[in-house]
């Protein structure tokens, strides 16, 4: 399963980056003109085996915004174009690079910040860090975010117990149709 999932992740990430490259270049210039540098925002996240890695996203917040979880962000620090990027999950596309280099998977628990101690503790209890975090996950399609660490870790654990390529396809499909 692990080898098939990794192959699936790499093939999809490579195809996605290739097909989306013209749009990504255009978006890069639009973001640069509308809100300046840096266009790509890199943030330390907790990955497989609690190893820290840099997670990449298109920057959707003003420079100097606090480095906190998404649910703790004030709406007034999000750039005008940032709202649209977040709504349609376009800001997540640079994470395809994280998938290619092996820091992330397409589907898995969303990576948390190193300062989210309660969530890290709950995930540790349930061995959630035994797999790579994902660009999307079961909790996201179920509408559960990092506000409730115990519930989130339970859903992450459920995903791990049921993970398969078919289940991943369902989660990806539900992510794409959910707004």
From TrEMBL:
Name its GO BP terms in alphabetical order.
polysaccharide biosynthetic process
UniProt domain Bacterial sugar transferase: residue ranges: 5-176
Q: Which GO terms describe its molecular function?
A: phosphotransferase activity, for other substituted phosphate groups
Source organism superkingdom: Bacteria
Q: Which Pfam families match?
A: Bac_transf
The record's listing under InterPro entries reads: Bact_transf
Q: Which UniProt keywords apply?
A: Exopolysaccharide synthesis, Membrane, Transferase, Transmembrane, Transmembrane helix
Q: Does the keyword Transmembrane helix apply?
A: yes
Q: Where are the transmembrane segments?
A: 7-33
| Family the UniProt entry places it in | Belongs to the bacterial sugar transferase family.
What is this protein called in UniProt? Lipid carrier: UDP-N-acetylgalactosaminyltransferase
